[in-house]
Design goal:
about 220 residues; alpha+beta; five-stranded mixed beta sheet; single chain
């Protein structure tokens, strides 16, 4: 191996690209260095890290120093791999290393610049995670409030139905009672009239003189 390239592949174009692994619907991509003529999922020269796009934010693990080394040896990243290398700072570190070689600044200054960038990047990532967490909590709270309103509306509707049923039952009972009173009243009146007539007849009978009784002299 010379300059990091296998002897047989010294004159071959080398790429940094993604190699798919994982299950259907749950892809895990390996970030690899491979011969540009090799099949996409074929044998690679070296694995640099992994990329999982299904998490939020996406999970990226990258050996930055190895990636920079391959970039400096002429390995060409695909568009997706280049975006990942930029996101993790590999392209920046390659640029800073170039500045050191040109004498623009020292290796210590370059490392300090890179660490400052990493800290700012980490803060940005953490801010995004916090925002996502806050959004999830708010969504959970909104869902709870919505379910609570639905439950309250269901209870209110049930109470209304029960009140209407009770009102209907009371109205029915009142109607039945009124109808019963109406039917019984004439019978009571007739009974009272018959009683009064009987009393009157009895009184008249007692007051009338007996025909067989002789008048006193």
């Amino acid at each position: 191996m010379r300059d990091g390239f296998p002897k047989k592949q010294k004159n071959m174009a080398v790429k940094i690209r993604l190699q798919r692994h994982g299950k259907k619907g749950k892809p895990v991509f390996h970030i690899v260095v491979a011969n540009s003529r090799a099949k996409r999922d074929g044998k690679n020269i070296e694995k640099l890290g992994i990329y999982v796009p299904t998490t939020n934010p996406a999970t990226i693990e990258l050996n930055v120093d190895k990636a920079v080394s391959w970039l400096e040896k002429g390995a060409q990243p695909t568009d997706t791999a280049k975006a990942i290398l930029s996101y993790k700072g590999a392209l920046l570190k390659k640029h800073l290393n170039g500045g050191v070689k040109k004498g623009a600044f020292s290796a210590e200054e370059a490392e300090k610049k890179f660490q400052t960038w990493l800290e700012d990047k980490e803060k940005a990532i953490q801010a995004k995670k916090d925002k996502l967490t806050s959004s999830k909590e708010q969504a959970k709270k909104d869902k709870y409030e919505a379910e609570k309103k639905v439950s309250e509306a269901r209870v209110a509707a049930q109470q209304k139905v029960e009140e209407e049923v009770n009102d209907t039952e009371e109205a029915t009972e009142t109607a039945i009672a009124d109808e019963t009173v109406t039917e019984v009243a004439p019978e009571v009146n007739n009974s009272e009239e018959a009683t009064e007539t009987a009393i009157a007849d009895e009184t008249a009978t007692e007051a009338a003189p007996d025909k067989n009784e002789e008048p006193e002299a």
